[in-house]
From TrEMBL:
It comes from the Bacteria. InterPro entries: IS402-like_dom. Residues 11-63 form the Insertion element IS402-like domain. This is Insertion element IS402-like domain-containing protein. It comes from Sphaerisporangium flaviroseum.
Amino acid sequence: MAKQRTYPSDLSDARWALIEPVLSAWRTDRRTQGLDIGRPCEHDLRTIMNAILYIDRTGIPWR
């Protein structure tokens, strides 16, 4: 698999170590509260968080 491009808004390993336990616990809690049907989670939480931070930082302006 090719290495993904990094952006200045991406989380550092130290910051991810602080956030990851909270997000993983949230994901597990949401999975157990539901009917536990459907496909398993296929997206990495760190990738999702990096995307949110990128959008927050840049605003993704229209051309």
